[in-house]
Amino acid sequence: MLESAKEVFVAKPPSASRILRPGLRAFKPGVERYTVPGAGLICVDLKAGDTIQVTDVEGGQPAEVIAAAPGGLIDPGLIGGAVSGRADGTLACLASDVASAARVRNRLEHDGIDLADAACMWLFGSESRAGAVHEFIAQQDCYLVVCAPGRPMYPEHQDTSTPIEVRISRKTIPAPNDTPLPDPLADPIQDIRISQSTAQAYTVKAGEYIQIIDVAGRQCTDFQCFSAAKLDKGLERPLDATTTRTLVAQGYPAPGLFSKGFDQDMDPLVEVIQDTCGRHDAFALACTARYYDDMGYPGHVNCTDNFNGALDRFGISPRKGWMALNYFYNTAIDEHNALYLDEPWSRPGDYVLMRALTDLVCVSSACPDDIDPANGWDPTDIHVRTYSDVESFPRAVAIRMTPDADAKLTQETAFHPAWAERTRNFTEYRGFWLPTSFTKDGPLEEYWACRERACVIDLSPLRKFEVTGPDAEALMQYTLTRNIRKLADGQVVYSAMCYEHGGMLDDGTLFRLGPQNFRWIGGDDYGGVWLREQADKMGLQVWVRSSTDQMHNIAVQGPKSRDILKKIIWTPPARPSLEELGWFRFTVGRINTFDGAPVVVSRTGYTGELGYEVWCHPRDAMTVLEAVMEAGAEHDIRPMGLDALDMVRIEAGLIFYGYEFSDQTDPFEAGIGFTVALKTKNDDFIGREALQRRKDHPQRKLVGLELDSNEDIGHGDCVHIGRAQIGEVTSAVRSPVLKKTIALARLDVAHCKAGTDVEIGKLDGHQKRLPGRIVRFPHYDPDKTRVRA
Questions:
Q1: Which segments of 571-717 are extended strands (E)?
Q2: Hey, which bits of 266-418 come out as E strands?
Q3: Would you place residue 6 in the very low, low, confident or very high pLDDT band (cuts 50, 70, 90)?
Q4: Which one of 74, 350, 694, 766 has the largest count of C-beta atoms within 10 Å of its C-beta?
């Protein structure tokens, strides 16, 4: 046998690790990607010989392309194109107040380029397919301006504006550390390149901004700063990580309320304004000589020694180890209380923007660690820019629709000005700032307004997609679990969207606007990407285009919601009036009169009360909100934040992504098995076979719990019968109307009968238990008499 085994075995050289890194752009060196937002534009420098690819990402989106030479010549021939006509869409966009317009306008004015009479190429159109591409080659050095023109979309229409992608393949490929930096946020005061394995010190005045950029991605940088005034007094008070963590009650400061970094005297030094990475460290020291000595690399260059050298000219004493805010350093503490590290999350061009709260002496490093994954095994450069205190930058974090997508900063909804007058308590939700509660009332009063009178809730972050074309119904029938063929014009249906294995991708509502016209409203941007992928696989003639930025919405909920809206919603004779509108139906109307702001009103909601949602273009948002608040004044209507919304949705048994469901949860386990039309839908749909199997052989079930204790419980708490864990809590709240603590929990089907006694484990799950029992689900209005009223 041994001889036989030796004959079979053939020695081979070791194979390289196969690792997929979608977070790092998988482009060849010299390839750059730019996204033109719908109804927006970009400006890019080109060199002779560069190749340009212009792509209609979602289909049906026109593009205008302008090429301009530095001397002022404007001619599509500069990139090998031909004139199609005037650039009216580009000029309209430049004159607008969209964010991209200001940057391009300033760039063109700085370089003396006037587009007033510019000729352009028109690319794509209403019939272009998703992914359609045009390619050009720059004939000489020039500027490229690309616009995705669009007009405001009426809420009952579907002519949304969607992104255009531009890829530039440079003829001359830059060196690795010449990776293009993102455009400056404004005119910089300082541009500081920190070469790999070095550190530099610099000064910043109070009110100025500090932008720390990861040039090539996957690179850590340690940041430290001192009050210049205290240094002048001989006091060395660096930013103190322990003090900062304690005061912000977070692992590290982030944009929002808990954004400041403090010294040991508890004096604030910096405030984090923007963060496109979202993963940093404030526990470990900047790397030290001792660390490398202990790892078997004596004499290795380290950030602490680099800090000491850079700070020496300011008379700051050297240290054996510097605490710091370790930006882009990916660490966590595991269940065994061990601090571990992995490759950074940061992509090329990711940055952190801070504002100095006093005059500072700062120091930043480009970490030299090449003995573990801290810098992706390959240390690279860091770049620092500072900006004047006269600039103003919004607080923002970044989201990405897919791992390889460009970062998109947090936006304000069109209703934000009204909320900002009433509260400073905002949280980031799906790329938008939403209020968590309002200063005058607080969550409890907002809750009672919803249950007893009326409230208004901003739900603009919901993702909207216009699904149109001859095969629109076929696509939605195949991708949703409901029977879409039964959906009538003017009707809305709640459905799950599942993967092949039966796990949920998303849940949402589908509006039918016409025979082959639908609007999908869900929680995840990826839903649109996935729908386009399925349409492409099936060869369907259908367009799936995002309209999230074209349509913002508020929910008007509560027993008095109908009385409020019927006073202000005008509907044409062919449409249902507000009073006639049935549950899960929508109508088209205007605010107050025939000439008022256009709206779509649906009888839908997320509270378990009679309620409606009002959909409008962002330009009309304040008009709509003011009308609602004025009409609701006699009923004492109140704005509601996310804290109170969570209370009412848990009482009503309404599910939330990341809590009641994920891609590991099927609709039956999420408590929405009624959305899976296995008996009444004869057509095949994605996940059908798996869902039938899961239904026939259930493992877990979502149930309601009532507790005998008044103590708080929360998501992830273990549920026990005796020593055995039988499930976990998904959501919990102290119910004001029921006067008890209630929860939603996913339990093993063997223990799901109403009346079963269970215990919620706290501490380690065994040292402290909170008794409760399984009850009828949902807890509040289980027969839905109020929402159907």
A1: 586-591, 598-602, 611-616, 638-639, 700-707
A2: 268-275, 325-327, 330-333, 339-342, 351-356, 360-365, 382-387, 396-399, 408-409, 411-412
A3: low
A4: 350
Distances (CA, A) of 409 to 399, 431, 516: 7, 7, 34
Q: Is the pLDDT of residue 1 over 60?
A: no
Distance CA 304, CA 437 (A): 43
What's the CA angle centered on 523, arms 345 and 37, to 5 degrees? 70
- Maximal CA-CA distance, the chain: 93
346 backbone dihedrals φ, ψ, rounded to 5°: -70, 140
* Torsion over CA: 389, 393, 398, 404 (sign): negative
| Separation CA 609–CA 454 (nearest Å) | 9
Rounded Cα distance, 604 and 608, in Å: 10
Q: What are the strands, taking DSSP E only, across 637-682?
A: 638-639
Alpha-carbon 8 to chain mean position:
53
Report the pLDDT value the prediction gives residue 586, as an integer from 0 to 100. Answer: 98
> 88 by DSSP, 3-state: which?
helix
Q: Residue 645 phi/psi, 5° resolution?
A: -60, -40
How far apart, in Å, are the Cα atoms of 675 and each of 69, 250, 523, 671?
A: 58, 39, 17, 10
Instruction: List the structure tokens of 100.
Output: 């991209």
602 touches 561 (CB < 8 A): no
- Determine if the peptide bond prior to 778 is cis (ω within 30°): yes
Distance in angstroms (rounded) separating the CA atoms of residues 713 and 532: 40
553: part of which helix (H) or strand (E)?
A: strand 552-557
Q: How far apart are CA 547 and CA 618, in angstroms?
A: 11
pLDDT in tens, 372-395: 999 999 999 999 999 999 999 999
Place of tokens 């900047």: 286
How many CA atoms lie within 13 Å of 521's alpha carbon, on the beta-carbon side? 23
Sign of CA dihedral 315, 318, 319, 325: positive
Question: Strands (DSSP E) along 41-114, which ranges?
Answer: 41-46, 51-56, 63-68, 85-86
Q: At residue 298, what is the residue type?
A: P
CA distance 239 to 646: 37
